[in-house]
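agent> Task received from the user: take the single chain below, predict its 3D structure, and emit structure tokens. No templates, no multimer pairing.
agent> Plan: (1) validate residues, (2) run structure prediction, (3) serialize to tokens, (4) report one or two observations.
agent> Step 1 OK, no nonstandard residues flagged.
tool_call: predict_structure(input=
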Amino acid sequence: MLMTELSSRTRMAHTFERHLSGVWRFRRARSTALLVADLGVLLLTALLAMLGRDRLGVFRATEDVAQNVLPVAALLVGLWIVALAFSGAYQWKRIGFGTGEFTAVVTGSLVTAGLAGAAAYLASYDLSRGFFVLAFAIGTPLLLVERFVMRKVINHLRTSGVLTTSVLLAGVPSHVDALAAVLNRSRWLGYEVIGALTNAGDEVETPHGLPVVGTLDDVAEVATASQAEVIIFTEGAFPKAGGFNRLARQMEDHHAQLVVVPALTDISAQRMNMRPVAGLPLVFVESPGAAKATRWAKRTFDVVGSSLALLVAGPVMGLIALAIKLEDRGPVLFDQVRAGLKGEPFSCFKFRSMVIDAEERLAELRRQNQSGSVLFKMKDDPRITRVGRFIRRFSLDELPQLVNVLRGDMSLVGPRPALPSEVAQYHRHVHRRLDVRPGLTGLWQVSGRSDLSWDDTVRLDLYYVDNWSLMQDLAILSRTVGAVLRARGAY
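)
tool_result: status=success, residues=491
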């Protein structure tokens, strides 16, 4: 009996080792693929920089470019790759998640520029300044684009069920189900939830149907048997303070990644700072950033951005206005009172996308509201015109709101502008949405628009208000282009 049990454990250990070997091979392959792609981009960069230095009229040809550059081009590319590696650009935990990967690329590029410049100076090597400037002006953006494309490919593969990571969720069933819903909704993350570990009695599954594969005391055994790559512990998983540390010691030889979900939701990493105090890992949280979102930096960004956008979009807006006028001879613009900063009403401009008597016909359509909330949503609204259906699909009906941004009624990025009737139905905590100017786009826009539930819309808007930063605005604006082209949730 003992020999049989030992044999079974030995087979299980060998299986787990083979699985881990496969995981590490995949991670190495992914890092190697990025390394090869980076190398190709940098070789192309060196070629373009050399051709640009030789042929662009802004640079005076004072030396033979090929003779000056070729001896150091390979060294520069090699130095760049090494700097990227030391900056963490090939660490698997940074690849495909958050901004850490892009930060590592920029940091590595800046370090390379500094080291290359210092080396040329100390060695008294008269490196072509044109080549130096062009190399980093071309190479850094190309590396970022390459990483962005690679991330999109990886996310698509994850969404399709390839390159997934098996996950066990441990904790109270209600918290496990909530986290499972988030991970299942965000398939691009690549987390495949395979089971739950709870201490909730003899249940075989959680309330939402996730199979219970063991108790919190069985983590090590279940992790080995299920070959889980990640174990996520939700709130309430450890009733005693030292519980996680004891478990981490047990899991030391299992190589599964342990993740703890803190009792902090919808708080950006930029607002959190972990510091050890008396042996305790305390998380210090900065105050919400709503006040920062009403200061001069964001307002300046809005004025400059909306002015440039109006110049670029002017011809398109003219064509849209002509198409609307030709369709039914009605007014081109539709202005509606919306709630702005601190709930102050303002006239929100849009291209008219509905029939002239749309407001009068709204009452008869109220029964068909598909949102189940304070918002009115109807996927096949009969009031929408032919031109209106097209401009709504690509959010072109909202272009006149650039004037609202310029006037200071709105911002380029912010919460969805609400109707006063919607504000009247807000719960107390939802009024927080009004602490910043409403936006032409926002997290709601890049996360599904009308496909979002009311709760998700509120959660995203409150997250934006509490965690505002100018970098987040830039990220949302860049994601808006893709959201508009995909037209997901646009109706």
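agent> Step 4: summary for the user.
The first helix runs from residue 2 to 55.
agent> Done.
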